[in-house]
Structures are given as structure tokens and as C-alpha cells.
Amino acid sequence: MLLRHFCRDRRANVAPIFALAIIPVVGFVGAAIDYSRASAARTALQAALDSAALMLSKEAAGLTSDQINQKATDYVKALFNRPEVQGLAVTATYTSQPTTLTLKGSAAVQSDFMRVIGIPEISIGSSSTVTWGSTKLRVALALDNTGSMASAGKMTALKTATKQLLTQL
User: Fold this and answer.
1) Which of 24, 49, 104, 121 has the fewest CB atoms nearer than 10 Å to its CB?
2) What is the pTM for the complete model shown?
3) Please, which pLDDT band fits residue 135 given cuts at 50, 70 and 90?
4) CB 107 within 8 A of CB 87
């Protein structure tokens, strides 16, 4: 009877609707906050991996696989300072032909709001690859062969300069 009376009553119906609507709104705002924290942590992880890969590329050729992994982990942990991130794992892969160093990192960001719906953490990951010592060189030249180049030996100078450039390369 009381429920029937409550459902038929049309006075002040904004408050119950607002009370019911605020729950998903707060949930979505909380999820957005957790996601933005995870996104910021992933961006910081990417920057740390990029810097560590560049630093490690200078000395990678003279190190063993275990030493490369250890140094990569040390560099990334020194550059990546996020207390909300747990379980940081870094792996490094070095190949000599072509000379490439790839660092991959993964971790988890502890969630605050999404924990309520059963998601205690958000996994993040990123990778960075450095390649050096490439033996192939591709060159494209855009040369002016219009009528203005015909005067004062400009076309001859252009040909000579082009041949010298190609010889040097």
C-alpha cells in the first residue's frame, strides 16, 4: 500500500530520480579519474623506456643478455618514479643484425574508484626500439632543371655538385 502510494505520487519526483542517477554518474567520473591516472603512468613509462633504450644502446654491444636486462631494469627504475604503480617488469632484447635494442615494460596501476566494481588494478605496458648502424641509405634529390638554370653555367655546376654528393655518400 505504501509502495503503491509512493509510485502514484507525482510531487517532488526529482529527488528520487536524482538519487538514482547520481550513482552511475559518480561511478563514471571515478572510472575516468582512474583511467587518467593509468594513462599518465603509461606515458611516464614510455618516456622512461625511450630514455633507457637510448642510454643502453651505447654499451649494449659489449654486454651479455643478462647484463643488458639488468641495466635496462636499473635505468627504467631510476627514471620511472610512480608510487601508484606496482609490479614493474622490464625485458630487453638485443639483436646484432640489424643492430636493434628493444625494451618492453609492463606494470599495474592501483585503482581507487574502479575497485568498487571489482577492478583493483589497471594493467599498463609500452615498448621502445632503437636501431642503429644501418648500412642502407636512401637518398632522393630534387634538382632544378628549369630554363633559369641554363644561364651562367648553373646546370653544369648542378651536375658537378650532384656527382660529388653521390660520391661522398
Assistant:
1) 24
2) 0.68
3) low
4) yes
